[in-house]
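Structure in, sequence out. Go:
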């Protein structure tokens, strides 16, 4: 015997048991991304490579994630000058970036790598939908 839900489902679809409900919550947070652009030449520029992506709940947490990422991505091959800039930004430059995020604007830090590529760390405010599955108790009516 088939119930109506399984009869109307598309092939390959997974149906939730009737005792579970999906709840959605609108959340506010900050999207932190690390990108690597393969060439500084705009004519050769391809799509950037995504080296890291996360959502954090606070502006301070977003800047902290960027600071940690900048300090740990020295393997990108920064020149000595760019290494000094990155260290300086991670020690003091982040304060301005935090203020920028707190007023609702995106912020970013970019360095040029020794091979001509660029690395970019960015944080931006986002609103997203968080989905969770929870048990649903049937009422005895």
């Amino acid at each position: 015997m088939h119930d109506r839900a399984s009869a109307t489902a598309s092939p390959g679809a997974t149906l939730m048991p009737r005792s579970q409900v999906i709840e959605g919550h609108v959340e506010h947070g900050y999207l932190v991304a690390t990108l690597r652009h393969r060439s500084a030449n705009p004519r050769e520029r391809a799509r950037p490579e995504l080296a890291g992506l996360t959502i954090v709940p606070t502006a301070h947490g977003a800047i902290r994630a960027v600071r940690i990422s900048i300090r740990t991505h020295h393997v990108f091959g920064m020149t000595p000058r760019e290494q000094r800039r990155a260290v300086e930004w991670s020690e003091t430059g982040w304060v301005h970036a935090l203020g920028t995020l707190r007023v609702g604007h995106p912020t970013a830090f970019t360095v040029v790598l020794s091979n001509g590529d660029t690395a970019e760390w960015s944080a931006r405010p986002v609103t997203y939908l968080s989905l969770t599955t929870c048990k649903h108790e049937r009422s005895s009516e």
